[in-house]
Design a protein that fits this description.
It is a single chain. The protein is an alpha/beta fold and 268 residues long. The protein has one domain (3-265): LigB-like (Protocatechuate 4,5-dioxygenase, Chain B), CATH 3.40.830.10. It has 8 helices and 10 strands. The chain has helices spanning 20-26, 87-99, 115-124, 143-152, 155-158, 190-204, 219-222, 230-239; strands at 3-7, 41-50, 55-57, 106-108, 132-137, 161-167, 244-249, 252-253, 257-258, 261-265. The strands form 3 sheets. It has a 6-stranded mixed beta sheet, sandwiched between helices. Strands 3-4 form a two-stranded parallel ribbon. Strands 8-9 form a two-stranded antiparallel sheet. Strand 3 (55-57), helix 2 (87-99) and strand 4 (106-108) form a beta-alpha-beta unit. Helix 4 packs parallel to helix 8 (230-239). It is globular. The two termini are 12 Å apart.
Length: 268
């Protein structure tokens, strides 16, 4: 099972059919991006769940749908993604992390799916039939820390678990050009374009050890907070050293939000 970093961008991805990224995610199953068979479970590392210590949600039953956004169309607050939890795989994930020295890992038995998880998944797997669980990000730590967590989770791939890092290749909500239509052809500002180019060239060129905000161009503008970037490191780490990166989608919203999304294929 390959691992993925998906740029979920704006919550309007759930309803706005004008967004190219939405059409990309709609093609997920028909084009077999994650393989010919449904995954046994989906692990989403979301930029919208921040904790001080490692945590996993362990839901027995159906995940709640968390509408953790404000000021959007009323219809979006009625959307639900009632995917079942994956308690057994979540418990195994906790054990893998603790065996690797990243413990203790907290179990959250009440938290459902935030929009970093359910917004892309309701487009990718609209029937909500695949069990889903989530991991945190810890913004007080660095990318290398999250990469090492991903490495500890590599065995999940062999068990058919789809590991998805969900964030945004660029994410500065204060700089977003809200005066533009989401699909405006206005070119991206220099800081966003150069960061996006750097990320693509580093990943596709196999320079994965360079993909850290500490050395990225314009990182303080492209990611004032690292929450939407660290999920990439978990997905990259879970694919293993020497994995191959592939750009599977690229588009922009409001000129500043990059929807660049990547697949990481494990080296044989």
């Amino acid at each position: 099972m390959d691992t993925f970093y998906i740029s979920h961008g704006s919550p309007t991805l759930s309803i706005d059919d004008s967004l190219p990224a939405r059409h990309f995610l709609k093609s997920w199953v028909p084009t077999g991006l994650a393989g010919p068979q449904p995954p046994s479970a989906i692990l989403v590392v979301s930029g919208h769940w921040e904790t001080d210590t490692p945590a996993v949600n362990v839901i027995r039953g159906t995940n709640d749908t968390i509408h953790d956004f404000y000021g959007f169309p009323a219809e979006m607050y009625k959307l639900a993604y009632p995917a079942p939890g994956a308690p057994d795989v979540a418990e195994r994930t906790k054990q893998l992390l603790e065996d690797a020295g990243f413990g203790p890992v907290a179990e959250d038995r009440r938290r459902g799916l935030d929009h970093g998880a359910w917004v892309p998944l309701m487009v990718m797997y609209p029937e909500a039939g695949v069990p889903v669980f989530q991991l945190w990000v810890q913004t007080a730590r660095d990318g290398a820390y999250h990469y090492d967590h991903g490495r500890a989770l590599a065995p999940l791939r062999e068990e058919g678990v789809l590991v998805v890092g969900s964030g945004s290749a660029t994410h500065n909500m204060r700089r977003i050009l809200r005066t533009l239509a989401p699909t405006s052809h206005e070119p991206a500002p220099w800081w966003a374009a150069e960061f996006d180019d750097w990320l693509r060239e580093s990943l596709l060129g196999g320079r994965h050890d360079d993909v850290y905000l500490e050395v990225a161009p314009h990182a303080e503008v492209a990611h004032p907070q690292p929450d939407h970037f660290y999920p990439l490191h978990v997905a990259l780490g879970a694919a293993g050293d020497g994995c191959k990166a592939e750009l599977i989608h690229h588009s922009w919203s409001n000129a500043t939000l990059s929807y660049a999304s990547y697949r990481f294929t494990t080296k044989n």
